[in-house]
Amino acid sequence: MRSTLSVPFKVLVLSILLIVINQCAAAELLQSNAKMEEAATARISGNVAFVEPKPPAFLEVMLHESVALVCEAASLNGPAPLIAWLRNGKPIHTGYSSKIHTDTHELNADVVITSTTRSILYLDCLSTSDATATYTCVAGNTVSHVQTDTHLLLLPGQLNPRVARNCAVQKRSSAGTVRQPRIVMWSRNTLQLQGQAVTLFCRTTGVPAPRITWEFRYGQTGKTGEIRSITNDDRHVVSD
Question: How many Å apart are CA 47 and CA 144, to the nearest integer?
Answer without folding.
Answer: 5
